[in-house]
C-alpha cells in the first residue's frame, strides 16, 4: 500500500491534476488544472477564478475528485482521490498560495475578487501501477 508521504511526493512531481466536479444535472465534469500549490495532510489547495464554472459547481455540490498520473515509457501510474471541495475567499490562504506570475490571470493581484482557492479534502482513493489497482481510505494511511 502507498503511504501518505509517497502519494504527496507523486502528486507534487506531476504538472497537471484533473479535477472532477458534479454539474447541476448530476453529471461528472473534469478539468485539467495545475497541481496543488499546497498540500497539508489530507488537504490539497488549488487556485482558480471565482467566476469559473468549476468554482460555481463546488459551491452548489462539494463532491469532488482529483486524478494525477505519470505515463512513463514502460510504466503508467495514477492516483485518484475522492472527497469534498470548498471554495475559499479567505485573504490568509489566498496570500499563502499566491505566486508572482498570477497577475497574468488575476489583474487586480491577490485581492482580485475573481481569485479564489479551492481546498480539496481527500477521503479515499485508488492507486494504479503495473496492472495492479488498490483502493484505500486516507485515514488508514501511514
Please characterize this protein's 3D structure.
The protein is α+β, with helices and mostly antiparallel strands and 142 residues long. Helices cover 18% and strands 47% of the residues. It has three helices and eight strands. Strands 1, 2, 3, 4, 5, 6, 7 and 8 form an eight-stranded antiparallel beta sheet that branches. A hairpin with a 5-residue loop joins strand 1 (16-22) and strand 2 (28-34). The radius of gyration is 15 Å and the shape is globular. It starts with a helix and ends in a 5-residue tail after the last strand.
Summarize the structure.
The protein is an alpha+beta fold and 142 residues long. The chain has three helices and eight strands; from the N terminus they run αββββαββαββ.
What average pLDDT do the residues reach? 94
Percent range for helical residues?
A: 10-25%
Strand count, sense and closure of the main sheet?
Answer: 8 strands, antiparallel
The fraction of residues in strands falls at: over 45%
Determine the N-to-C terminus distance. 10 Å
Secondary-structure class:
alpha+beta
| Assembly state of the chains shown | single chain
Q: How large is the count of helical segments?
A: 3
Low-confidence stretches: none
Radius of gyration: 15 Å
Helix and strand sequence: HEEEEHEEHEE
| Record field, number of beta strands | 8
The global form is globular
Amino acid at each position: 500500500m502507498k503511504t501518505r508521504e509517497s502519494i504527496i511526493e507523486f502528486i507534487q512531481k506531476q504538472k497537471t491534476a484533473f479535477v472532477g466536479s458534479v454539474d447541476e444535472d448530476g453529471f461528472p465534469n473534469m478539468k485539467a488544472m495545475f497541481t496543488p500549490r499546497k498540500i497539508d495532510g489530507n488537504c490539497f489547495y488549488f487556485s482558480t477564478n471565482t467566476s469559473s464554472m468549476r468554482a460555481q459547481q463546488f459551491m452548489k455540490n462539494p463532491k469532488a475528485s482529483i486524478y494525477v498520473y505519470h505515463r512513463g515509457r514502460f510504466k503508467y501510474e495514477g492516483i485518484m482521490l475522492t472527497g469534498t471541495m470548498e471554495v475559499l475567499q479567505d485573504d490568509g490562504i489566498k496570500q499563502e498560495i499566491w505566486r508572482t506570475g498570477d497577475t497574468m490571470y488575476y489583474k487586480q493581484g491577490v485581492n482580485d475578487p475573481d481569485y479564489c482557492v479551492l481546498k480539496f479534502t481527500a477521503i479515499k482513493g485508488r492507486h494504479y501501477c503495473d496492472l495492479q489497482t488498490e483502493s484505500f481510505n486516507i485515514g488508514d494511511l501511514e
